[in-house]
C-alpha cells in the first residue's frame, strides 16, 4: 500500500457482478486501511438477530421496544461473534477508536448499556463480525473492478433505510448500477 492512498472512512460498494454471497450488493465502511491490510464493517446486511436478543445475551435491560426490534447487522464474515458499534460523535467509551469525519467505532459493553438506557449516541448501528483484507488484497479487488469507492457520510450510514443503502450509494455515482456490465475490457 506504499503508493496507494488509505481508503479509511470511505465506502466500498460492491459492483453488481460481485457474486460472493458474503458481499453481493454490499456497502462496507472502511474503518482501517494501511500496510497491514484493511478492515471494514458491512452496513447494509441485517442479520436474523434483533437488538433485544443481543442485549438479553449480554444481560443488559432496556424498556425501549423500538430499540429491541432493530436488527443487528452482519458486519462481515470474520469473527461473527464480535460486536461493533459504529456511531456518530465522540470516541468517549472504554474501547473506542475515532475514525474521523465525526465517526467512531466502539467495542466495549458500556456503549451498549448507554444505548439501552437512552444515553448513548443519537446515531449508531450495531454489527456482529467484520470484513478484512490481507495486505494488497483490497487493492487487487479494486483493480479487478469488484468495488466502487464512494464517500461515506452520516446520512447514508444512519438515516437511509438498510435495504436502500446499496442503491443510494451507487446512485451517488450518477448512473444506475444495474447498467454496469459484468466484465471489463482492455483497449
Automatic annotation (TrEMBL):
Family, per entry: Belongs to the UPF0301 (AlgH) family.
Annotated SUPFAM superfamilies: VC0467-like (SSF143456)
InterPro entries: AlgH-like (IPR003774)
Organism: Lysobacter soyae
Pfam families cross-referenced by the UniProt entry: DUF179
Lineage: superkingdom: Bacteria
Name of the molecule in the record: UPF0301 protein H8L67_02845
Amino acid at each position: 500500500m506504499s503508493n496507494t492512498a488509505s481508503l479509511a472512512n470511505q465506502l466500498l460498494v460492491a459492483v453488481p457482478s460481485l457474486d460472493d454471497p458474503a458481499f453481493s450488493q454490499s456497502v462496507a465502511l472502511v474503518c482501517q486501511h494501511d500496510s497491514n491490510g484493511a478492515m471494514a464493517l458491512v452496513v447494509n446486511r441485517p442479520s436474523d438477530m434483533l437488538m433485544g436478543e443481543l442485549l438479553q445475551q449480554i444481560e443488559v435491560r432496556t424498556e425501549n421496544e423500538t430499540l429491541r426490534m432493530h436488527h443487528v447487522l452482519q458486519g462481515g464474515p470474520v469473527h461473527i461473534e464480535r460486536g461493533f458499534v459504529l456511531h456518530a460523535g465522540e470516541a468517549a467509551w472504554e474501547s473506542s477508536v475515532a475514525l474521523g469525519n465525526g465517526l467512531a467505532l466502539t467495542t466495549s459493553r458500556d456503549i451498549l448499556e448507554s444505548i439501552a438506557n437512552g444515553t448513548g449516541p443519537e446515531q449508531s448501528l450495531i454489527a456482529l463480525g467484520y470484513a478484512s483484507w490481507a495486505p494488497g488484497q483490497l487493492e487487487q479487488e479494486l483493480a479487478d473492478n469488484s468495488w466502487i469507492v464512494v464517500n461515506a457520510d452520516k446520512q447514508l450510514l444512519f438515516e437511509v433505510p438498510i435495504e436502500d443503502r446499496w442503491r443510494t450509494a451507487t446512485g451517488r455515482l450518477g448512473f444506475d448500477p444495474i447498467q454496469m456490465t459484468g466484465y471489463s475490457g482492455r483497449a
